[in-house]
Design goal:
It is built from 13 helices and twelve strands. The chain has helices at residues 15-26, 46-57, 71-85, 101-112, 128-135, 160-165, 184-196, 236-239, 254-267, 273-284, 288-310, 334-345, 371-382, and strands spanning 33-34, 95-98, 118-123, 139-144, 166-172, 200-204, 230-235, 248-252, 323-327, 347-348, 350-351, 362-366. The strands form three sheets. A seven-stranded mixed sheet has the order 2-8-7-6-5-3-4, with helices on both faces. It has a three-stranded antiparallel sheet with strand order 9-12-11. Helix 5 links the parallel strand 3 (118-123) and strand 4 (139-144). It is globular and about 60 Å long. The relative contact order is 0.17. Bound molecules: pyridoxal-5'-phosphate.
């Protein structure tokens, strides 16, 4: 057999798959608490599950579906954008369902990047932006997200020759992993920058409805004229606790929506209708439970922040997202700290460097463990002798 394509050389196994093996082995010796992944532990609201069961019980819901999905599903996305963002979308040309936004993010790079094209990517950032670029033969240019700039990239600092070769600009707010948020003025600036430099602005809004104290996380499409240069990835994974269901959408610029649609007609065969119908129920049904769910995350956030600050680890208090971005004790690297906490406290965190070089000096702590488990994890971390109190 001949070897796989050279493209596969870009493909390192994900950090989390390696970690899962390590944790499995450790579980022989003790109870490991995982605060590394961002996978919601709470279920979706009961009507969503009922919709899935009802639909799956019918005899006529088991065939292939069209790539655009049922009209009422797209109408549900349109309704959600109107309700949450006051943004009007056309259900036929500006909404494309995805098998989770990860799929769409990866495929968008394949659809837009030729070998040598540049994608402007936040560092630290969600890894699929750079993996997609690498698979397409494109070149990532990493834009540092620094604490002193409140984790917003300095678009004006990108060298002119890099901008000339760039096709895609990736942004993600509320941000993974830094848990930072972007003011509307930054989005305005990004839209102007994309228009001036002929870029496609891709905003990943995976955490747009995991917010605290009534904070409103804006859609990039709230900026007047954004649709001319921008698309947004909207995920149901975190908003509706539906991570395993694999559902998201690309919304915005109709030309880009059509292009990704063309690619997907070659790569997949849409989704299972009962899942699409349950997603429609999620977006059109009672939304009050999301506020209650966010209050649970907020209590967890406060518990984690209280512990960390008590240990002298001065993490910023997030207004949104599922994470706390925590500086590591002086003298340790992100990886050192993560390893020590895992080995000594049996608590698993994600080293910031998993998300890029500028993640050094931080760990990401996820709030997606049951509150009592999170409290136990904080107790264990507090008792570690190597952390100066
Ligand atoms: C920033 C960001 N974008 C996209 C995704 C992928 O989400 P989905 O479940 O919709 O594929 C994640 C998942 O953790 C994420 O953190």
């Amino acid at each position: 057999m001949k070897p796989p394509s050279s493209r596969m050389e870009q493909s390192a196994p994900s950090f989390f798959s390696g970690l899962a093996v390590r944790i499995e082995a450790m579980r022989q010796a003790g109870d490991v608490i995982r605060l590394d992944e961002g996978s919601p532990d709470l279920p979706p609201a009961p009507p969503i599950i009922a919709a899935l069961i009802n639909s799956a019980s019918a005899s006529n819901t088991h065939s292939y579906q069209t790539h655009r999905g049922p009209k009422d599903l797209r109408a549900a996305w349109v309704g959600m954008y109107q309700r949450v963002h006051n943004v009007t979308l056309d259900p036929d040309s500006e909404v494309l369902p995805l098998l989770g936004t990860k799929e769409g993010i990866f495929h968008l790079s394949l659809a837009y990047l030729d070998p040598g094209d540049v994608a402007l990517i936040p560092d630290p950032g969600y890894i699929t932006y750079s993996r997609g670029a690498a698979f397409a033969g494109g070149r990532p240019y990493f834009m540092p997200l620094l604490q002193e700039r409140t984790y917003l990239p300095d678009l004006d600092a990108i060298p002119a020759d890099v901008v000339r070769k760039a096709k895609l600009l990736w942004l993600n707010y509320p941000n993974n992993p830094t848990a930072s948020v972007a003011p509307l003025e930054f989005f305005e600036k990004a839209v102007v920058f994309a228009r001036k430099n002929d870029l496609l602005l891709c905003h990943d809004a995976a955490y747009s409805q995991v917010t605290y104290h009534g904070y409103h996380a804006a859609s990039i499409l709230e900026i007047p004229g954004a649709k001319e240069v921008a698309v947004e990835f909207n995920s149901l994974s975190k908003t509706y606790n539906m991570a395993g269901w694999r559902l998201g959408a690309l919304v915005g610029n109709p030309q880009v929506v059509r292009t990704l649609f063309m690619l997907k007609t070659n790569a997949d065969s849409s989704h299972f209708l009962p899942i699409l119908q349950a997603a429609t129920e999620a977006m059109t049904g009672d939304q009050a439970w999301i506020t209650e769910r966010n209050q649970v995350y907020q209590q967890r956030r406060d518990l984690v922040i209280h512990t960390l600050h008590g240990l002298g680890l001065m993490a910023a208090v997030p207004q949104a997202s599922l994470y706390v971005w925590c500086p590591v004790p002086t003298g340790l690297t992100s990886e050192d700290f993560t390893n020590l906490v895992l080995d000594q406290a049996y608590v698993s965190l994600t080293p910031g460097t998993v998300f890029g070089d500028h993640g050094e000096g931080y760990v990401r702590i996820s709030l997606t463990a049951p509150t009592e488990r999170l409290a136990l994890a904080m107790q264990r971390i507090s008792s570690l002798s190597f952390i100066k109190k």
